[in-house]
């Protein structure tokens, strides 16, 4: 049984307090630490226990679901990925190979587009990132509930809280549930090396590591609050959608289900993240709302937020991600 969250925290000598130890919070913690900034990370649960490790791990720069305004940020992050993974490998001793290098995007007119898009295994990435953070000596407090009133007034705070609202702070994100299953690949698909994706489903094969020879089939998009239950009818529907792309996946004997789970994407009203100061000039920052692309956007988010915190000029126009686009949503 996990301990109940502590409500008292002490930021000690930390210059920046990061609330949330998902992939975004931990990536930023590492970036700030390497810039010589003392960081403390608070996590109300355990690190990486929610969307970060529920994700499929596609670095889906070209997904037609993505809003157009996301493209420059997505491209920057995908570009940072190889060096970022190599660096985490060096710090953690855990290699994180790209699982796939190509995505086949099925279009409604019957055409199939080929994208040079990669994928990673988020649980492997999470384990390596967490080990890197721990090896770096970054202070990470688990089962520690954040209360805005307990933080020193001048404290720089970053809310990397995913689908959750930190204390009385209201962030315009809602949980968007995604159910997903992992199946054993039948012998006829043992050489599957690409992500297969349509408007309604994606199939992500695992090539390396403990999940090799299996594939993820995802995902639903539901407004179900914080419910993370899975349902046979929904999983069957995902499987039948996948079978429209790769028919053998319809066969539950040939491609048995190994596991199923659901994660909670942090969704904003316009599906773009929230990156920047909560209000102009504030030392309270948002790094959330990554919706379907938290894994992809982690390295760029870390660099851009660290630049903002250090008052460096932004290398990318962050206006589309400003909190100011939802003025009425904030209240504390
Ligand atoms: N990243 C894909 C999804 O959210 O389902």
Task: Describe the model.
The chain is globular, with a radius of gyration of 20 Å. It has helices spanning about 25-35, 50-55, 70-90, 120-135, 230-245, 295-310, and strands spanning about 15-20, 40, 105, 110-115, 140, 155-160, 175-185, 195, 200-205, 215-220, 255-265, 275, 285-290. With about 325 residues, it is an alpha/beta fold. The two termini are about 30 Å apart. The chain has a 7-stranded mixed sheet with strand order 4-3-8-9-10-7-11. It has a 6-stranded mixed sheet with strand order 5-2-1-6-13-12, with helices on one face. The chain has one domain (about 15-325): FAD/NAD(P)-binding domain (3-Layer(bba) Sandwich). Bound molecules: glycine (GLY). Glycine (GLY) binds near residues 56 and 58.
**Class of secondary structure makeup:** alpha/beta
Q: Can you identify the CATH class? A: Alpha Beta
Q: In percent, how helical is the residue content?
A: 10-25%
CATH topology: FAD/NAD(P)-binding domain
Strand order of the largest sheet: 4-3-8-9-10-7-11
SSE run: EHEHHEEHEEEEEEHEEEH
Q: Give the distinct bound molecules.
A: glycine
What proportion strand? Answer: 15-25%
- Average predicted local confidence, pLDDT: 94
SS summary, helix count: 6
* Main sheet: strands, sense, barrel: 7 strands, mixed
The shape, in one word, is: globular
The value of Rg in angstroms is 20 Å
How many strand units? 13
Uncertain spans, ≥5 residues at pLDDT below 50? Answer: none
CATH superfamily: FAD/NAD(P)-binding domain
CATH architecture label name:
3-Layer(bba) Sandwich
